[in-house]
Amino acid sequence: MKYIKIGIAVLVLAGIVFFTVKSVDFTSNTTDKIEISKPENQFMQRIEQEIAKLDSVSGLQESGKHYQKVVYLIGDFKQNKKFDSIPETNQQWAESFQKKTYALYVDKFIQESFKIFKGSEWGYKDLQFIRKEIGSLQKSSFLEKNSSANESLAKIQRVLNSYSEIASFVSQCKRFRYLSDRLEDKFPLDEVRQKLLKVKEYQSRGGYVKNCTRLRKQLNAVPQVLFNAHIAYLDNKIDNWSNLYMQYNTQRDYSEKLYFPIMKEVYSLSRAVYTFVPNFDKEYERLKDKWKADNRKAYNHQYPN
Fold first, then answer.
1. What is the Cα–Cα distance from 288 to 298, expressed in whole angstroms?
2. What is the rounded average pLDDT of the residues 230-251?
3. What percent of the chain has pLDDT over 90?
4. What is the mean pLDDT of residues 78-87?
5. Whether residue 231 is found in the same domain as residue 258
6. What does the pLDDT look like over 142-185, one tens digit per residue?
């Protein structure tokens, strides 16, 4: 009897185990239900963070500095295969980040450049930075030829060209000098007239350059600069030929050969030429009096004949 009970118990236990095992679905692949995410690449995250910072940076030169920082980091990470151990994938990530960074920066560069052009103060350092930066941006392989960015960069270049043209003209006028000692030489008044016509042309030119206060003031000052050069020439000529009346035999000889030729040059100072020069009358009268003083000395001089 004892053995019969034991046998029954074993059979019951085996049945429980059989049905328990049968109820379990071993064909189900539970790993398919678990999403395994790739470990995050900290270097990619760093670049994304720096690109986001670039978007928030304000100011032309500040944006440029941060752009160069991002470009350097991308190049460094690429060289050291920080984006991916597979060279091709690493290269693709680098190019993707470079293109994204360029697109963001070129838009910011355009925006900041025109912000300066629309203002009245065009800083020398800002203009120098724009000239340097625009060359690099236009050479980039990421710039599409028919894009709005390409057209905007070309427009910025045209503004710079116009500014440089006027600034170069002003600089040339500031250096204008004519100090001849020879009596037969004459001040190049025709050249001055051409320069003054150029001033009017630039003054009437539209576009962004008219907003630059410094350039506008320098251009408006050109007539005065040219007038000063004319005055310096006449002052120098009068000084060099003063007190030479004693070298002539008669007062008439002095007047015809020296006094009248130089006085004629003084009379060549024309209000019609130097229209907007405030000290024209003062300088004109001063030069006439200065040369007439020499004539009075000549008149009182005792000539040999």
1. 15
2. 95
3. 82
4. 93
5. yes
6. 999 999 999 999 999 999 999 999 999 999 999 999 988 799 99
Same domain, 46 and 157: yes
Residue 242 belongs to a domain = yes
Amino acid at 54: L
For residue 13, tell me if it sits in a domain: no
User: Do the beta carbons of residue 28 and residue 78 sit within 8 Å?
Assistant: no
- How much is the pTM? 0.79
> What pLDDT is recorded for position 305?
66
Clarify whether residues 64 and 132 are in a common domain.
yes
Residue 78 structural domain: 42-170
Task: Indicate whether 152 and 47 sit together in one domain.
Answer: yes
Are both 136 and 200 inside the same structural domain? no
Residue 177 DSSP code: -
Tokens found for residue 150: 């390409």
CA gap 124, 74 in Å, rounded: 31
Contacts for 250 with CB less than 8 Å, ≥ 6 apart: 303, 305
Q: What distance in Å separates the CA atoms of residue 62 and residue 133, rounded to the nearest whole number? A: 13
Domain boundary, last residue among 150, 170, 190: 170
The string of pLDDT tens digits covering residues 45-70 is 999 999 999 989 989 999 999 999 99
Q: Are 78 and 91 in contact (CB under 8 A)?
A: yes
Look up residue 8 and give its two tokens: 């029954």
**SS (HEC) of 12-62:** HHHHHHHHHHHHCCCCCCHHHHCCCCCCCCHHHHHHHHHHHHHHHCCCHHH
First to last CA, the chain: 179
